[in-house]
Amino acid sequence: KINLEFYIDIHAHSTMMNGFMYGNIFEDEERFQRQAVFPKLLCQNAEDFSYSSTSFNRDAVKAGTGRRFLGGLLNDTSYCYTLEVSFYSYVLGGTASAVPYTEEAYMKLGRNVARTFLDYYRLNSLVEGPLAPTPKTR
């Protein structure tokens, strides 16, 4: 009875670098394309987020996860993701050197997720223009 637009389950990943997302696959191509918008925007906002490591799947092993379960339960305007972030480090684009995650780096990623929500709702004309000047702190 409640219209839920986003569900994001947050996990730490023990082997992969950077932040990335898992999303669901849908038969409806338009819905699948719409679901890719949020991770693409997050990649523009966060230097430690990797869209190329983001994966959309129906892995049977993950059938009981919040992302998979709610993705099949909620209406087709809801988007369910798992945000995975490395325990250890991230690699900046164009370099090969790993940057260790710190508490501040995790907080920065959280702020960039919030900025991405704002960008998403601006893109969909649900929020008008700039609310206040916000520095782009990739």
From TrEMBL:
The residues annotated as the active site are 84 (proton donor/acceptor)
Q: Which GO terms describe its biological process?
A: proteolysis
Q: Keywords on this record? A: Carboxypeptidase, Hydrolase, Protease
Cofactor(s) essential for the protein: Zn(2+)
| Superkingdom as given in the UniProt entry | Eukaryota
Q: Write out the similarity annotation.
A: Belongs to the peptidase M14 family.
What protein name applies here? CBPC6 carboxypeptidase
The scientific name of the source species is Ptilorrhoa leucosticta
